[in-house]
Amino acid sequence: MTKNETIRTIVSFFVLTLFFCGAMSSAAFALSLPFTTEPISEADKTVLTSRLRVNLVESEPPRRAIYCFAVREDGVIAVATRDSENQTVSVYEQDGKFLL
């Protein structure tokens, strides 16, 4: 391999590495779009609730990686976690005290 081919190979590898690093990273941006809601029909409620299996727990479940979360205006925080079998939503007060 000549010197020019070696330099070309190294530069190509470097450029491809930068490209893949840039492609693999992603950023999250907050949306400032107005969302609207509307009441759900009774038929849709029945279908939705028939597909859910909900268990109420009275003690804080084991901590896992956060899947998603939501914060109400009054500071109450809902944290969703999941494992291979279950999805869990834990509700906390603003100071971190477990509610549900």
Summary tags:
100 residues, alpha+beta, 3-stranded antiparallel beta sheet, 3 strands, 18% strand
Count the domains. 1
Q: SSE order, as H and E?
A: HHEEE
Give the number of DSSP strands.
3
What spatial form do the alpha-carbon principal axes imply?
elongated
As a percent range, the share of strand residues is: 15-25%
Measured distance between first and last alpha carbons:
67 Å
Count of helical stretches: 2
Describe the main β-sheet briefly. Answer: 3 strands, antiparallel
Structural class: alpha+beta
Low-confidence stretches: none
Secondary structure blueprint with pairings:
Blueprint: H1 3-24, H2 42-50, E1 66-71, E2 77-82, E3 87-92
Structure, explained:
This protein has helices at 3-24, 42-50, and strands spanning 66-71, 77-82, 87-92. It is built from 2 helices and 3 strands. The chain is of the alpha+beta class and 100 residues long. The chain has a 3-stranded antiparallel sheet, with no helix packed on it. The mean pLDDT is 83. It has one domain (3-92).
Q: What is the compact description of this entry?
A:
The protein is an alpha+beta fold. The chain has helices at residues 3-24, 42-50; strands spanning 66-71, 77-82, 87-92.
